[in-house]
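Quick one, tokens below. Sequence please?
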């Protein structure tokens, strides 16, 4: 008999501002780096942009009603910095802030707990013009922005997260350039990473001064495994890959030190931060948010950069449309690892989901997505497994509520539990949404009898 979920377990879905809102310049908002990036030819597949996306900015009430119909008890969304502060700092735009006030009020009316993320990759372009994440002033800029939002919403928002997946911001935005702002430099990536951590720390400190509830950090973790015939070089590559992706942010933020592998990974690009600079990154948080999608089995590969490791496809496994292996056991193991390594902090699964092919238009009004149902079922069972192994998991957010703009993939990768017909903006809950609604209504009972692997 699998363990039950705790009584106050939060059942949610997650989204982010640029991926769903549309109307990026409405009501006095300033453009973000994603607005610029998507409007640069060749950057986003199919030339897609966030100009309309899911039109959520104009359909917010309808979308909250959808969440209520699914029985969600939590909703994780992000706030677009440039709607609140069009220039990134200084002048506040009440109309932009007003959108999030209305969203939060609507959620509360529907009995849904809001979880707000302050930064999900859409830096105001005006700050990028001043160096963006490379400028040391980004930490106080972020704290000032956070303060404006806390003052407006903390009376109604009990759960806050600072930065979504700092590793992706630095790796995609500054190391490999596949995400905004599209730079490609190890020297920049190491600096951006450090300033992301400084901004996180400053955002938490601002919360301690102004807020009354809980604040945490959201990281993406991908367990790095070895093949059965791994060599010493493979082992070394695995350790470097694990340090780069999984420990580079959590160790400084929670333990006050960078992993020892960092100089080997960055070589001449490693800035060699002073001990006091690194210790200043450690600021207590109330919880950790885990975004979990997959694992990778790695091998040494001298041509790979900055870590000499390549993922080896597992031919026996199911893979998603983004090429990610379905590996629910990794979610259970990661939750337990976080619990053990970082002092038993409360944990939320802040994202977990899969892109599988769905047709652009529903067929006879329905969208059947058995692979996504399987993904959800096995990963929720993995959360039960982690609970049974002692991890303090307080909630789960499926990624994502809606099919949306999957960054550089545009709308070509569908992660939603609710189908969006981008030609008409019609929403259709998929079979996975109906399954999730049953799980929620039964407090997890609908999962009984399923295995986590
Ligand atoms: C991000 C989401 C993204 C999802 C699927 C996460 O890294 O936080 O914005 O859509 O993964 O790629």
């Amino acid at each position: 008999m699998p363990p039950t979920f705790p009584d106050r377990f939060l059942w949610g879905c997650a989204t982010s501002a640029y991926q769903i809102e549309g109307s990026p310049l409405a009501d006095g908002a300033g453009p973000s780096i994603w607005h610029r990036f998507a409007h640069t030819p060749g950057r986003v597949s199919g030339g897609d942009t966030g100009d309309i996306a899911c039109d959520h900015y104009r359909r917010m009430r309808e979308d909250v009603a959808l969440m209520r119909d699914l029985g969600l008890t939590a909703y994780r969304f992000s706030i677009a910095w440039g709607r609140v502060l069009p220039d990134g700092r200084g002048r506040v735009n009440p109309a932009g802030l007003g959108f999030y006030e209305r969203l939060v009020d609507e959620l509360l009316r529907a009995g849904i707990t809001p979880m707000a993320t302050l930064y999900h990759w859409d830096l105001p372009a005006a700050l990028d013009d001043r160096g963006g994440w490379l400028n040391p002033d980004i930490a106080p800029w972020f704290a000032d922005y956070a303060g404006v939002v806390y003052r407006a919403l903390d009376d109604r928002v009990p759960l806050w997260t600072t930065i979504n997946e700092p590793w992706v911001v630095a790796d995609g935005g500054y190391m490999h350039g596949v995400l905004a702002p599209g730079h490609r430099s190890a020297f920049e990536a190491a600096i951006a990473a450090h300033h992301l951590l400084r901004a996180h720390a400053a955002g938490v400190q601002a919360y301690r001064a102004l807020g009354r509830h809980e604040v945490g950090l959201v990281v993406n973790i991908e367990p790095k495994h070895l093949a059965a015939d791994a060599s010493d070089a493979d082992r070394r590559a695995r350790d470097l890959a694990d340090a780069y992706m999984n420990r580079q942010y959590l160790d400084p933020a929670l333990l006050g030190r960078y992993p020892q592998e960092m100089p080997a990974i960055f070589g001449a690009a490693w800035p060699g931060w002073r001990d006091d600079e690194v210790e200043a990154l450690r600021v207590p948080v109330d919880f950790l948010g885990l975004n979990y999608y997959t694992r990778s089995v790695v091998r040494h590969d001298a041509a790979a950069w900055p870590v000499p490791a390549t993922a080896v496809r597992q031919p026996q496994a199911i893979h998603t449309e983004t090429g990610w292996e379905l590996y629910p056991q990794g979610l259970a193991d990661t939750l337990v690892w976080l619990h053990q390594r970082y002092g038993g902090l409360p944990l939320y699964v802040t994202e977990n989901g899969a892109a599988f092919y769905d047709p652009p238009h529903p067929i006879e009004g329905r969208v059947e997505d058995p692979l996504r149902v399987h993904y959800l079922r096995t990963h929720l069972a993995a959360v039960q497994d982690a609970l049974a192994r002692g991890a303090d998991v307080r909630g789960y957010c499926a990624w994502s509520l809606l099919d949306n703009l999957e960054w550089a993939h545009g709308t070509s990768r569908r992660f939603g539990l609710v189908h969006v017909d981008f030609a008409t903006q019609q929403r259709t809950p998929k079979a996975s949404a109906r399954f999730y609604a049953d799980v929620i209504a039964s407090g997890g009972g609908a999962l009984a009898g399923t295995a986590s692997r």
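The first helix runs from residue 17 to 20. The chain has 16 helices and 13 strands.
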